[in-house]
Amino acid sequence: xxxxxxxxxxxxxxxxxxxxxxxxxxxxxxxxxxxxxxxxxxxxxxxxxxxxxxxxxxxxxxxxxxxxxxxxxxxxxxxxxxxxxxxxxxxxxxxxxxxxxxxxxxxxxxxxxxxxxxxxxxxxxxxxxxxxxxxxxxxxxxxxxxxxxxxxxxxxxxxxxxxxxxxxxxxxxxxxxxxxxxxxxxxxxxxxxxxxxxxxxxxxxxxxxxxxxxxxxxxxxxxxxxxxxxxxxxxxxxxxxxxxxxxxxxxxxxxxxxxxxxxxxxxxxxxxxxxxxxxxxxxxxxxxxxxxxxxxxxxxxxxxxxxxxxxxxxxxxxxxxxxxxxxxxxxxxxxxxx
Length: 338
Fold this sequence. Notes:
- The protein is an alpha+beta fold.
- It has two domains: 9-97; 115-335, 2-Layer Sandwich (BirA Bifunctional Protein, domain 2).
- 41% of the residues lie in helices and 19% in strands.
- It has eleven helices and nine strands.
- The protein has helices at 9-24, 28-39, 44-48, 57-97, 115-129, 143-146, 182-191, 232-247, 289-294, 311-318, 332-335, and strands at 133-134, 140-142, 175-177, 196-205, 217-227, 253-260, 263-272, 278-287, 303-310.
- The strands form two sheets. A seven-stranded mixed sheet has the order 1-4-5-9-8-7-6, sandwiched between helices. Strands 2-3 form a two-stranded antiparallel sheet.
- A hairpin with a 2-residue loop joins strand 6 and strand 7 (263-272).
- Helix 1 packs parallel to helix 4 (57-97), helix 2 runs antiparallel to helix 4 (57-97) and helix 5 packs across helix 10 (311-318).
- The protein is elongated.
């Protein structure tokens, strides 16, 4: 191997160059690249190691030690500069992400429950306070639950396409959007032993044309009581207690004879107005014995009553609205009043 003289000052020059370049590095990433240039396989310091083979053994040992010291010094310079740059970058990041906890924010405008939801919640609170439980069921029903179990035969006009919205599932005119929440009553009686005290709120559907008093999709709540010794007096008292709790103690109620296939006797119940007139609120009656039998309940042992009315229409009455369609028009100017 060629005996090339070694210049000790070259190590000092490498160290000085490393110090200057490390000081000039602007971030941790560029410093990492510099580390490869100063200490990597292609670095000047690594190239000097190739001259060690041409030195005498004693000199080779001394120069090798100097090279290691230079390498350690460069590593120390780089580590110190990396710590400085990391601290600077961390401080910049913290400043950029700092939250000013003294900043005053505008008041957040929060929404509120829709008028129908408010009415439903209030109704549930009233009836739960009277000892009822809330029951729910599917909005798509079969003819059995929507009609047949409720003593509505296939010739009844309520089962015509002009009054019911059928869906294309199963046999024709056998699956439909429920036209009342009465199917929840049937499902409860099928799966629960008496005594039964439930209310069934939910969305219902009929092929009505929307106008000031009707909607094709509306919300209804029905009640069902099955127990021993139940009479029309219990029904009348329950309705009267509900009306006074919901509308106020000055409001009176009355029952008028009517007809429903699932109750016998049946009645409409009205509430009094401030001007002395009466307003129909819903229908009610004693559960028909055929309905009880259809659900596996002995009408000789158990009796019951049922009632139902529209939540939307009740909201119209309570808040004295002129048009029921305002409840579904989603006009924030209207809804914001409630």
